[in-house]
Amino acid sequence: MKNAQHDEMIHLLRNHRSIREFQQKRIPPDLINTVLTAGQAASSSSHGQSYTIINVTDDEKKRLLADYAGKQTHIRDCSNFLVFCADLYRLEQIASLNGVNLKEVIESTEMLLISTIDAALAAQNVAIAAESLQLGIVYIGGIRNNPEQVSELLELPYRVYPVFGMCVGYPQPDKVPDSKPRLPLAVVCHENSYSPFEDVYPEIQEYDEEMRDYYANRSHGSRTATWSGAMLDKRKVPRRMFMKHFLNQRGFSLR
Amino acid sequence: MKNAQHDEMIHLLRNHRSIREFQQKRIPPDLINTVLTAGQAASSSSHGQSYTIINVTDDEKKRLLADYAGKQTHIRDCSNFLVFCADLYRLEQIASLNGVNLKEVIESTEMLLISTIDAALAAQNVAIAAESLQLGIVYIGGIRNNPEQVSELLELPYRVYPVFGMCVGYPQPDKVPDSKPRLPLAVVCHENSYSPFEDVYPEIQEYDEEMRDYYANRSHGSRTATWSGAMLDKRKVPRRMFMKHFLNQRGFSLR
């Protein structure tokens, strides 16, 4: 690969932005399959591939999922709404057919981590593949607002849970937002040992000002939050406190 | 981006293989920073960036981490060993400085998911960025064999836990393995609802034969397992059953 191509890939990765305004245009099945098989190429723990993607193309299901996720209309408007699920059901079925009892292992918190991470790594490959084909994506954690309804709608069996969704579609060219600044590298990446908070706090404060400008520009001056302020506003309302119970009910992390 | 470049990107994603044999050559700091900032560009829940990467370059620490992960010498031999951590400490510190009490929220299983997924999405971007620069990577779940020792060595505070590691370095050109076949797309990707197991099982059986050939080739005939067989062998030994207790002790998923 030539240097110019390396630069293009790094540029593509750094150029990510979440797309929430889509054209009314369907992605051809061949193209979405290209994206999905690129997703499959991500690593998985012990090559277990402990995830399943539900590719939602049905309009009525997308409309319901948009409601479940808190009236996120881009779920309805995108071409394909992908629901990434952690999946230990497939393994348990294979075990059962082979007379192996994996109940204790499958119910471990370790297997919750493995299957959740497998789903996330595949998803990020899907995101990059889609963006390289000039499609737009946005992750939807909001499906965890109503995970039971989502599971029922998609007929997820016991030992499968919906981790997050992803809208995929053709972006409306005039509605692509600016890319959002990230925390300074020194805040999120430390060398050899964890940096004391007081060492990174000045850089968080600088970033707070950068994000204040970003939010102000994007809202034409109406939003004055810093990053820290926006985070605290977001997190101080307890949300999805049912998650432990939900996961346990679906057969995850019981021990 | 031109079509040829789209193809390059999809090819790059599909061409992933885990590298465990590295040249004794250090990655220049500028180059690793390019990789890490590309990692930062991944999405995170509510833009919270709830992860920290410990970039381990110290030889003694790499040697110890190789032991903790079960004598994985590639951790010692790679240029940079990146430890991806879920991080709720940063948020709690910011909250505390602003007089906000986030204890209940931070201790939720939902925040375990958010921070673990944030770390995983950043990691997969790091993997793709590294591979686009012709570096090799391998994920290391093995650091969860001894997460307390890893946490202590890297001085991780309460509310931070090591999710997985990643070796990054220059591959030994004659020791790059073949890429591993994935499950047929129809097994891991279902349209509109979860496919019954009996519908996908024949494809799993075909894949079992494909993987039997793959393992046999790679081992010069000494390994005769199928994928299902290898998975059951791997999973039937309960591993890391302490994970729930460990996470609770580090302040995660307490409610």
From TrEMBL, chains A, B:
Gene3D superfamilies: NADH Oxidase. Keywords: Flavoprotein, FMN, NADP, Oxidoreductase. One of its GO terms (molecular function) is oxidoreductase activity. It holds the Pfam family Nitroreductase. It comes from Halalkalibacter oceani. Coiled coil: none annotated. This is Oxygen-insensitive NADPH nitroreductase. Signal peptide: none annotated.
